[in-house]
Amino acid sequence: MKGGAASVSAADNVRIRTVTAEDLPAIVKLDEAVTGGAKPGYWRALLSDLEPCNKHDLTFLVAELEGRVIGFITGNVRAFEFGSEACGWVFALTVDPSVRDKNVGTRLFDELCNRFRRAGVAKVRTMLARDNDLVLAFFRSLGMMAGPFIQLEKDLD
User: Fold this and answer.
1) Could you give the domains of the chain?
2) DSSP 42-91
3) What is the C-alpha separation between 94 and 37, in angstroms, rounded?
4) Which of 28, 86, 95, 120 is geometrically suited to a Cys-Cys bond with 79, CB 3.0 to 4.6 A?
5) Which distant-in-sequence residues (6+ apart) come within 8 Å of 47 by Cβ?
6) What's the rounded Cα separation, in Å, for the pair 14 and 96?
C-alpha cells in the first residue's frame, strides 16, 4: 500500500503552468526520448511565438513534478481554415512514459481546453497518425472523435 500512497501523492504534486524559456532543454530532451527525433530548432521557434510581439495566440503548457518537466502540450485557436469555425487545435502533447499513469496528459489537455474556452471557442481538434493506437485511444478517452474533415496529402518530387 505504501507504493500506492506515494503514487497518489506524486500525481497530486504535478503542477501545470505556462512554459518558460528555461524549459526548452527539458522539452527538447523529452520530445526526443518519446519521438526519437531531436527538433531543438522547432521548439525554440515555437517558444519565440510566445513573445508579446508575436500575436499567434499560442498556448504552451508544461507539467512539472518536483521541479522536473514531465510533459507538455501546445496549441492555439485557429479560425476559418477550409470553412471551419474558430476552434482550438492541439499541436503537440508529450508525457514522460514513466508517469503516463498519473493523468498528466489528461490534466494538460483539460487545462488547454479551459484556455480555449476562455478564448471563446467551443471545439478542439487535433491530427494524429492513423496507426498511432496509443495516442488515438488517449484522445478518444477524452471524448474526441472523428471530425468533419479528411486530411489529404501528396508526395512532391
Assistant:
1) 12-141 (3.40.630.30)
2) HHHHHHHTTSTT----EEEEEEEETTEEEEEEEEEEE--GGGPPSEEEEE
3) 13
4) 86
5) 19, 21, 24, 60
6) 13
Output the tens digit of pLDDT for each of the chain's 157 residues: 344 444 445 567 899 999 999 999 999 999 999 999 989 888 988 887 665 544 557 899 999 999 999 999 999 888 766 777 889 999 999 999 999 888 999 999 999 999 999 989 999 999 999 899 999 999 999 999 998 888 888 999 8
As given in the structure block, the three cell numbers for residue 149 are 474533415
Of the candidates 61, 75, 69, the one whose C-alpha atom is nearest the C-alpha of residue 18 is 61
CB 97 within 8 A of CB 86: no
- How far, in Å, are 90, 106, 126 from residue 139 at the CA level? 11, 9, 9
